[in-house]
Amino acid sequence: MPFCPNCGKLLADDNAFCPSCGHNATTTTTILPPQKSKEAAGLLGLFFGSLGVHDFYVGKVTHGVIKLVLTFTVLGYFVSAIWRFVDVICIITGSYHDNWNRPLTGDATITKILLVLPILFFILAIAITIFVISPLFIVA
């Protein structure tokens, strides 16, 4: 037995309109899950992105399964890692959408910080190598 999408009353199978509220009982309502957070998707992508966890979070199950399968192959792991990095950049810039093509909500401040810090440490390590360690190997 169907129910009225407006008031929830039980309807007969042949009712086109709800006898209680008069709502058109032939229309259906699609209920979408709430929009997902940029922060959560960004952090999941940053730490578990090669496994596709952030894709499962936003409802992109097919992408998540592909990344999960790719991760267990040698070449696929590198493809999945690059794909993860691109996804995190897209999440931060706001061009990443959920499975229903809705933008993610909020601001990914912590994700931005966690993405920038390793880059800064890498640059610092190169600078230290060039200016401190490399003069030790120069023979006069």
Kindly describe this structure.
The chain is mainly alpha-helical and 140 residues long. The protein folds into two domains: 1-31; 38-137, no CATH class. It is 52% helix and 0% strand. The protein contains five helices and no strands. The protein has helices at 38-48, 53-58, 61-71, 74-93, 109-133. The longest helix has 25 residues, at 109-133. The radius of gyration is 25 Å and the shape is elongated. The N and C termini lie far apart (92 Å).
Features of this protein?
140 residues; elongated
Q: Describe the biggest sheet? A: none
Total domains? 2
What assembly state would you assign to the polypeptide chains in this entry?
A: single chain
For the CA atoms, what is the radius of gyration? 25 Å
Low-confidence stretches: none
Name the structural class.
mainly alpha
What's the layout of helices and strands?
Blueprint: H1 38-48, H2 53-58, H3 61-71, H4 74-93, H5 109-133
Short overview:
The chain is mainly α and 140 residues long. It is built from 5 helices and no strands.
